[in-house]
Amino acid sequence: MAAAPFIAPTPAPNATVIPTGWRRARTGLPFALILVLIGVGGVVAAVAVVDGSHQPRSRGEGLVAAVVLAALGVPGGLLLVVFWRQRRTRILVDHTGLWFDKGDGRNVIPWHTLAGVGLFRSRGHKTTFHSLELYPTGPIDRDDPVLWTLVREEEPFRPGLPWLRHRLRIEAADVPLAVAAVHHYAPHLWLGESRREGGHIGRPDRAGHRERTRARGR
């Protein structure tokens, strides 16, 4: 008798969906596109100055200005790629746990593996950053193919919680929905809110991840 095919777990049909990637793309893509267009305009202007079809008051200054404008297209192009790739990223919350879906990969952090869930907020230059902090009851795989970019290691905001945890950034507009979903599915895990220092979102340990995965042969 043939073995039953493996069916990967999926979020519940009625899971709460938090479209984090789409929200960031909706605001970030127009800004990135503007930078790209400025860069294209700079390239066109530089060509015009070089071939003589455009003669500014000072050829040198005109060329420098055109090059500066063209250079703005580089970060614009990089941002365009980043926001486009992340547009399908979302968080789903159901009776199993919190799912992190990147569009090309998905994994879940089950409720039964957590000691608590909290909300962090910090002030940036012009905005407020929010994150769900998922504190585990035991060890976590800090190099999981889907979840490794969420892993952070820092002092917990309450005694007894581990240093290593998953941090899921959420947009301000999604905070009420995310908090309500956690309250609905796992009210016993809610740790409340905490205000943190600016820039608390941090960055994943890319160098450490590369070193560890290389050593393991992943």
Can you characterise this structure?
The chain crosses the membrane at residues 31-50, 62-84. Keywords: Membrane, Transmembrane, Transmembrane helix. With 218 residues, the protein is of the alpha+beta class. The chain contains 4 helices and 9 strands. A 5-stranded mixed beta sheet has the order 7-8-6-5-9, covered by helices on one side. Helix 1 (20-51) runs antiparallel to helix 2 (59-86).
Mean pLDDT: 81
Which class of secondary structure composition applies to the elements? alpha+beta
Low-confidence stretches: 1-7
Radius of gyration: 23 Å
Region (Disordered): 196-218
Keywords: Membrane, Transmembrane, Transmembrane helix
Transmembrane segments: 31-50, 62-84
Protein name: PH domain-containing protein
Quick tags:
218 residues; alpha+beta; PH-domain like; 2 domains; four-stranded antiparallel beta sheet; 4 helices; 9 strands; 24% strand; disordered N terminus
List the helices and strands and how they pair.
Blueprint (H helix, E strand, L loop, with lengths): L15 E3 L1 H32 L7 H28 L3 E4 L3 E5 L4 E5 L3 E10 L4 E9 L14 E3 L10 E7 L4 H11 L4 E6 L10 H11 L2
Parallel strand pairs: 5-9
Antiparallel strand pairs: 1-2, 2-3, 3-4, 5-6, 6-8, 7-8
In short:
The protein is α+β, with helices and mostly antiparallel strands. It has helices at about 20-50, 60-85, 175-185, 205-215, and strands at about 15-20, 90-95, 95-100, 105-110, 115-125, 130-135, 150-155, 165-170, 190-195.
